[in-house]
Amino acid sequence: MNLFKLLSDIEKADPEVSERFSFYSRRNLLKFGSNLLAAGIPTVVAASLNQAFAQTTSAPSQAAIDTANFALTLEYLEDEFYRTGLATAGLVPASDLAVINQISKHETAHVNLLKTALGAAAIAKPTFKFPAGTFSTYATFLATARALEDTGVQAYKGQVGTLVNDKLILQTALQIHSVEARHASEVRRMMGMKGWVSDPTQTTFTQAGVSLKTLPNVTGITDDNFRGAFDEPLTKQQVMAIAASFL
Question: Which InterPro entries does the protein's record reference (predicted)?
Fold first, then answer.
C-alpha cells in the first residue's frame, strides 16, 4: 500500500482530516503516551474513509456485497455487545473502562464504515439475543468478548479470497481485520493470557498452501509456536454456526 497516496486520497475526500491528525503530533505523543494516542487513530481514519468511500463510483460484485453484509452482521453484533456491557451498571471496572470504551467506539466506526461502503445494499441491523449471564460478571463478559473478537479475526481472514477482485470492499475488510486482531490481543491480555491464539487441537500447519514444517530454518520451533504464529480462517458457515446463539 502506498501510504502517502492513501493519505492524499483521504485528504481530498475530507479536507479537515489533517487538522484531526494534528492532535497526533510529537508534542502530544510525549505528553499523553503513544498507546493512548494510537488507540484513537482507527476512529479518525474510519471517519475520513467514510467520505472517501461515499465518492466512489465503482460497483462491487454481488459476492462482495454478500461478504460485506456478512461482516456487517458481525460488526453489528460486536457493537451492540460492547454498548450493552458499558450500559450495564458496575460491570466494567474503572481500571478497564477506557479500553472497553475505545473498543466500543471502534466497533461503531466499523459498522458505519461498512454501511457507507455498501450504501443502499447494507442490511438492517438484526435483533440479537445474548445468552443468559453474558453481562452478569466481568469475567463472563471478557470471555464472550474474546470469543467474538477471535471469531471476527478468523471470519475476515476466511473471506479475503472472495474479495480479491473488489478492491474497495477488500480494503475496507482488511482495515477492519487488523483492528479486530488488536482487540483480540488486548482482551486476551486483560484476561491474563498471551495475546495470541494457541489452539492445542490444531494439528495441521499449512498457510497459503505451504507446509510450515517443511520450511528451512524451522528446527526447534514447537507446534505451539506454529499455532500462535497464524490465525486460522473460518468459513462463513462455521462463523454463522458460532453466531447462531446470538441471533
Answer: Ferritin-like_SF
